[in-house]
Amino acid sequence: MKRAGGGGGEMSVSHASIHPVEDPTTTDGGNNNAPRVRMKDIQGMPGTKGGLALRLSQFIFAATALSVMASTSDFPSVTAFT
């Protein structure tokens, strides 16, 4: 029985092989204590005092907006789709 596509009956399959990678050599005389480049702390990023202040003010503004909406007389009858 022949396979569709012909080709002599053997499948051409690539075999897995391992290619070792060597550690890059350093040519700077062994000075591996060079300062690394770090991202600057951005005001308001998570984990900072500014970030906490922004989240607290966001919560206060959201609570105020919700309380203003809830204090209206037609709040229970209005949906987001009207």
Low-confidence stretches: none
**Could you estimate the helical fraction of the residues in percent?**
25-40%
Outline: elongated
H/E element string? H
Q: Can you count the beta strands?
A: 0
Strand content: under 5%
Distance between the termini: 69 Å
Biggest sheet overview: none
Structural class: mainly alpha
Total count of helical runs of at least 4 residues: 1
Report the C-alpha radius of gyration, rounded. Answer: 33 Å
Question: Could you tell me the mean pLDDT?
Answer: 75
Q: Characteristics of this structure?
A:
single chain
Topology (SSEs and partners):
Blueprint: H1 49-70
Textual characterization of the structure:
Helix content is 27%, strand content 0%. With 82 residues, the protein is mainly alpha-helical.
Q: Quick gist of this model?
A:
This protein has 82 residues and is an all-alpha fold. The chain is built from 1 helix and no strands.
